[in-house]
Design goal:
Blueprint: H1 2-18, E1 34-35, E2 50-51, E3 56-58, E4 70-75, E5 81-91, E6 97-107, E7 115-122, E8 125-134, E9 142-147, E10 155-165, E11 172-183
Antiparallel strand pairs: 1-11, 2-5, 3-4, 4-11, 5-10, 6-9, 6-11, 7-8, 7-10
Length: 184
């Protein structure tokens, strides 16, 4: 019996010395990498977004998208109304979510009555408006970004675009495109 224990012990030592057993952790894809939204540029319409009617449009030569052929558009009717577009993604534990988006504003407005509020709500953090954009944003596409920060638990993050237009004050149109959701 003693000889058998000695042989088993010697075999175990030999395996450890020759590297026949695995040392270290298995290779796994990093959960905090890459773009996580399936339709960031609205190329598939409102798929994966909650949107009001007529928000996602397909651009043309006169009003092209930032990239691709589709974008979201808000207001532009000179009536008192609001338009809402939002989506929710899951942020893994110990990951930071960065949301980047492009906005173009065209207007005939002369006073600040029309606006586009962009919000980020993350589990465990009170929701807040990160950007309040008005008619003076410019007719060229401009990029904005916001971040969730990290946490030790998995969270959900909801990004919302809420446009409000007031009648009789001029027409303002807000276009949004390429809303990327990147983990790091």
């Amino acid at each position: 019996m003693k000889a058998l224990v000695t042989i088993v012990s010697a075999t175990a030592l030999l395996l450890l010395a020759t590297g026949s057993t695995s040392h270290g952790r298995p290779t796994v894809d990093a959960p905090c990498a890459g773009q996580i939204h399936a339709n960031p540029g609205f190329e598939r319409g409102a798929t994966d977004w909650t949107a009001g009617p007529r928000i996602v449009v397909f651009g043309d030569a006169a009003r092209p998208a930032h990239t691709g052929r589709a974008y979201a558009t808000f207001a532009g009717l000179d009536v008192s109304r609001s338009d809402l577009l939002r989506t929710t993604v899951t942020v893994p534990a110990d990951c930071d979510l960065t949301v980047r988006f492009w906005v173009r504003t065209t207007t005939t407005e002369t006073a600040r009555g029309d606006y586009l509020n962009v919000g980020l709500a993350v589990t465990g953090i009170p929701p807040k408006t990160r950007f309040s954009l008005a008619f003076d944003g410019g007719a060229q596409w401009r990029q904005y970004s916001m971040s969730s920060g990290t946490a030790t638990t998995e969270r959900t993050a909801t990004v919302s675009f809420l446009a409000s237009e007031t009648a009789g004050n001029g027409v303002t149109t807000f276009d949004v495109d390429d809303v990327t959701f990147t983990l790091s």
